[in-house]
Amino acid sequence: MLDWLALWGISSAGGYLAKEVIGPLAKDALEDYTKDFFKESIKDYTGLSEQDTQKKLLVKALKAFVALVGQELKVADLSKQEIKQYTKPLKQYIKNQSVKAILGSAFNYGCKEIDTDTLAKTWVELKLLSLPEEFRWKYIGKQYLKQVQTIIKQSDKLRPIWDSQTLDAIAKNTNATAGIIPDFNLREYQEALLESYGNVKLDSLDTDGSAYNQLKLWTIFIPQNVREVHDLMPEAIHELPKDYYQKLLESGQLEQEIDQKELQRAKKLYYQQPIKSVLDVIKDSQG
Hints:
The structure is a single chain. The chain contains 16 helices and two strands. By secondary structure, it is an all-alpha fold. It has a two-stranded antiparallel ribbon with strand order 1-2. The protein is globular. The model has no long low-confidence stretch (mean pLDDT 75).
C-alpha cells in the first residue's frame, strides 16, 4: 500500500484525508472505478483509453477533490481530529455511482460546471456525517473544475488533444462571427505570434540584434513566490479607491457591499497557504 501511495504522490503531498480516502482504492477494483469515473469523458480524449493514463488522472482528480473538501472543513474551524471523522464518510461518498460520474464529467471537453446540487443532495441521501453549515459545494465544484483543467493541460497524453479541440473551437467561433476567411490558417497564425513576440525586443541596446536574437522571454523569467488561492479575493474589490468603489456601487456594477465576514474568511484561507516558488508549484502539480 505504501509503495502505491508513494507512486501516485499521495503520501507526501495529499494530506491525511487523501491518503486514507484514496489509498484503499488500490486494494479494490481500481480498474472498474476508473471505467465508471471516465465513462462519459473518455469519448473526448483518445488518450484516456489507456488504463495507466486513466489511473494517474483519476488519482490526481480525486486528490484535488478530497483536498478541497478538507480545506472547507478546515476553514470552518474544525480541529484535525474532527476532520479525521470525515474519512469514512468520504470513502463511502466517492464510491457512489452518481458522484463518480459527476467528478468524471469535469474531464468532458468544454465542461463549464459540474452538478454540485446533486453532490450536495447525495451526501444527505447517504446519511453521512453532517457537514458544517457554511460548507460550500458550489465553491468546491468551481475549484475542482479548474484543477481538472490544469491536470488535463499538464498531461502529455491529453494536452495535444485539448489544444487541438480548442483551436477547432476558436476557428468555428471565428467563422461564425466574422464569416469564413479565405485561406485563414489558425496554426500558422499561432506560430507567427510566437515568432513575433517570443523574443525580447532589445533593438535600442544592440542595433545589429546579433546578441539578442535568441534571447527568449522565458530565459529571463524571474520566478515569483506565490500562495495558492481557491477563490477570488473579495479584498481585490474592497481595496479599490473609495470614490471609484462608490461609483461602481451607485451605478449597480457591484451587486452589494462587501460582506466583512466573507472578506475575513477569504483572508484567513489565503494566509493559511504556504509561500512557495511558482516553479515548485508547477513541479509538484506534475507529480
